[in-house]
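User: Hey, my collaborator sent me this sequence without any context and asked if I could get a structure. I don't really work with proteins. Can you help?
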Amino acid sequence: MAANRSVGRNVHLYDAIDRVTLLGGLLLTNGVTKSNFYSMVEILLLSQTSFSLEDNTSATLERNDDPLPRGNYYVVGSFTVSNEPVLTRTFSLSTGSRLQSFRDEVRRRDGRCIITRTIALGAYRNYWTGFEAAHVFPIGYQAHWDQHNFGRWITIPGTNGETINSKQNGLLLRADIHGLFDNYGISINPDDNYKITCFADDPYDIAGKFLDEQFRHAPDRPPDELLRWHFRQAVLTNLRGAGEPIFENDFPPGSDIMGEICGGPKAAERMEFELFSRFA
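Assistant: No problem. I've predicted the 3D structure and written it out in structure-token form, which is a compact way to encode the shape of the chain:
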């Protein structure tokens, strides 16, 4: 059964005219400022004019770097909720010679978990247990990547000239962080000094921290456009309505994996993603 992202939310968003129908919400973690929240709402909502947010006392929420308080907020102004699609994504490890090259190049460049800064101490003897090369844009959506020309942001193609498997579409992450990154529980905001934003519970004390200068100044790191795309997807996945489903990935031996996927939400999309990811 898919988990519910709305459970535990302590920030809720409504229309000021309709204070009953929920527009969305957020599980508040460290580092989310009032300005950050405005930026997230600007992704969630489409508006031809400026809007403001009010709290329960009808006081305007100032747009500044103060921490965002928990509570209900109301949108003042004309808007529609964005219907920008979210690419259904679940954690999986792909195989193939093209991806081995991608993995090796990401390892050589990063040498540590980019988000937690955990050093891969065994790298000198090619021991990488606990570290995984993650795609920023999921490889299961090669057609979407090509159709929207995401490759235009890549300056260093991968094996066979592929852009989706360029190291510039990759980050080395700890295995546990990889899972959260893939399901949009963690993202990086390149428009706020590369701040780490957690949309899920943060047992690692990383929410609100920033990527280090080594990463930011690396000429072959992922371009801001890809990080920005991932952040937008994370906002839409977690804030819009009740949020997107969190898929089960831990299938004990003997489980009916196909049955669970087909009987769950977004079955066709998930199946397509799984097939393309695993056999890329």
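In plain terms: The radius of gyration is 19 Å. You can pass these tokens on to your collaborator as they are.
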